[in-house]
Amino acid sequence: VMITREDVKDVLDELELELISNDVAVEVAESIREELEQELIGKKVKGKSEIPKVVERSLRRALLSVLEPEKEVDLFEVVEKAREEGRPAVLMFVGVNGSGKTTTIAKVAKLLKDRGYSVVIAAADTFRAAAIEQLEEHAERLGVTLIKGEKGDDPAAVAFNAVQHAESKGKDVVLVDTAGRAYTDVNLMEELKKMKRVLEPDLVIFVGDALAGNDAVEQARTFDEYVGIDCAILTKVDADAKGGAVLSITKVTGAPILYLGVGQGYDDLKRFTPEWFVERVTG
Amino acid sequence: GLGDRLSSLVDKIKGAPVIDEKLVKEVVRDVQRALLEADVDVQLVLDLSKRIEKRALEEEPPAGVPKRDYLLRIVYEELVELLGGEETEELDVDPSRDVNVIMLVGLYGMGKTTTAAKLARYLQRRGFKVGLVCADPYRPAADEQLRQLAEEVGAPVHTEDTDDAVEMAVKGVEALKDECDVIIIDTAGRDRLSEDLIEELKEMAEKVEPHEVLLVLDATVGQKAGDHAEAFHEAVPLTGVILTKLDTAAKGGGALSAVARTGAPIKFIGTGERLDDLEEFNPKSFVARLLG
Ligand SMILES: Nc1nc2c(ncn2[C@@H]2O[C@H](COP(=O)(O)OP(=O)(O)OP(=O)(O)O)[C@@H](O)[C@H]2O)c(=O)[nH]1
Ligand SMILES: Nc1nc2c(ncn2[C@@H]2O[C@H](COP(=O)(O)OP(=O)(O)OP(=O)(O)O)[C@@H](O)[C@H]2O)c(=O)[nH]1
Ligand SMILES: [Mg+2]
Ligand SMILES: [Mg+2]
């Protein structure tokens, strides 16, 4: 028997709302629903009772296919490749205000240091109150070099200095912290674009907040438009967040989610797997 | 935006004597989508839809009011009602008191520390002598951040070299209550799953007896806003909400659930990173923006 539109309308409506209540952006949930509709309608099944199971299987496949994008990024491979080329790898962290960039940089610094790499952090948020001091504390605790300027200095210049320092000292990685910014602020987005042009980073890492809802889509899309996002890290997953932003971010940018921030400690970074999210939604 | 979509839909029914059911359902679907895109809680959207649909089918527009305007008005009214009505509630700061204590609480990175300084400036402009207290012993350079903002705003600030947040708050109030008539306490970010941090907040409120406990909520927060707000409210009764980052494109629908679940009205909105970027809440313009 063939599945009809009527057979799946209600269950797909429910699914769409389920995704939305998991903080998947409305446009992403709708697009997934359309894909499912296309796949399911006309599909042959043994009997109508099979339909719920078939829908679930299709949903899993649809979610996995979004979360396993074409682009594959491995942090350590990127660092190794730069090493082979005899230069430090430059990783630039970007995102909106308060998303967890600075804290995430500290975690990534520890991750890399534990793997034996030498790390330099660039305090290129020269705008916000005590942004530099916040990194100073992290750098001291972690035992990594911090290259900073003064509050108000040109961020790209500070970051560039850090890269030059890393080059001259033979350091493996430079982690560039940038100021949080509203993607609606054209001047700030242009400033970020300029920084990318100056640094030519190996990776632009978008740091998103798992507590965010639909705004995650616009954030990812706009940052991708201005600087190009290579991969993403989603923070505050431990704060009872649904995490639907992983789907929203990857769907609109094709950038894979590398890690999840699961707390405020230096070890609170865990590798993201697509199964993790699929389980949360279907489990 | 929704306004245009509703207009074009309702143009179809201009001639109709009563608003027909099929069209109401179409309009409600459009409203649902707009609200979900604005991060309003799914259940709240479904409840609201039922109420709007019911009113749209049962009520007759008053003579001379076009159907389009009446449908829109129902949606606006229901949303403003949810926010506590058209009147914005004032901050409970009384100049005749020895000292007014305000506590800012909320999730990580919402804008509490920045808002503390903004609120200080707002109150200074109204003739209050405002002091700032750092009660965040966890975040690296939290005290330094508040110090720099306090300097910018010209307010006395108290920080304490301890890892005990309650002690920071208590000693801060002690230190500033003679020279200030309002004291704003900035607390560390926390979430409803961090039991000891929630306990800490309870203990802090018991000791400093705040007149205002304001939940600082980021307009980008999605479907979990209501749950978190409720948890904060259970720990320490909230007297208000400050919705931040409305200068971005985020609609702030999460604030609707926060208000609906706690009864705490939105008192201010944050509209940027500068210390002047704080405005009194206006329910009607918030709803207009929510509906796009
Ligand atoms: N629970 C939890 N909190 C986090 C996580 N990541 C960051 N935070 C907290 O979120 C808050 C903001 O973190 P920051 O690292 O300052 O964020 P940011 O993006 O650098 O902020 P700006 O530079 O001001 O834009 C801090 O209180 C962090 O401790 C996480 O994975 N889990
Ligand atoms: N665009 C915009 N940014 C804001 C607004 N309010 C605060 N911010 C920014 O949001 C980021 C986080 O602000 P904080 O004041 O450090 O947030 P917090 O809640 O104290 O953070 P924790 O103490 O770590 O939980 C900073 O980059 C602020 O400048 C606002 O209304 N609009
Ligand atoms: Mg930062
Ligand atoms: Mg703070």
Labels describing this entry:
heterodimer; A: 283 residues; alpha/beta; 8-stranded mixed sheet; 8 strands; B: 292 residues; 11 helices; binds guanosine-5'-triphosphate; binds magnesium ion
Short description, anyone?
Chain A has 283 residues and is an alpha/beta fold. Chain A has eleven helices and eight strands.
Please provide a written account of the structure.
The complex is a heterodimer of chains A (283) and B (292). With 283 residues, chain A is of the alpha/beta class. Helices cover 51% and strands 14% of the residues of chain A. Chain A is built from eleven helices and eight strands. An eight-stranded mixed sheet of chain A has the order 3-2-4-1-5-6-7-8, with helices on both faces. In chain A, helix 1 runs antiparallel to helix 2 (26-40), helix 5 packs parallel to helix 6 (131-142) and helix 9 (215-227) runs parallel beside helix 10. Chain B is of the alpha/beta class and 292 residues long. The termini of chain B are close together. The model of chain B has no long low-confidence stretch (mean pLDDT 92). The interface between A and B is large, with 42 and 45 residues. Bound molecules: guanosine-5'-triphosphate (GTP) (2 copies) and magnesium ion (2 copies). One guanosine-5'-triphosphate sits between chains B (106, 108-114, 136, 139, 188-189, 244-245, 247-248, 270-273, 277) and A (97-98, 128, 180, 182).
What is the percent of helical residues of chain B?
A: 40-55%
What is the global morphology of chain B?
elongated
Overall pLDDT confidence of chain A: 96
Structural class of chain B: alpha/beta
What is the 3D form of chain A? elongated
Strand count, sense and barrel status of the largest sheet of chain B are: 8 strands, mixed
* Biggest sheet: strand arrangement of chain A: 3-2-4-1-5-6-7-8
> What profile does the largest beta sheet of chain A have?
8 strands, mixed
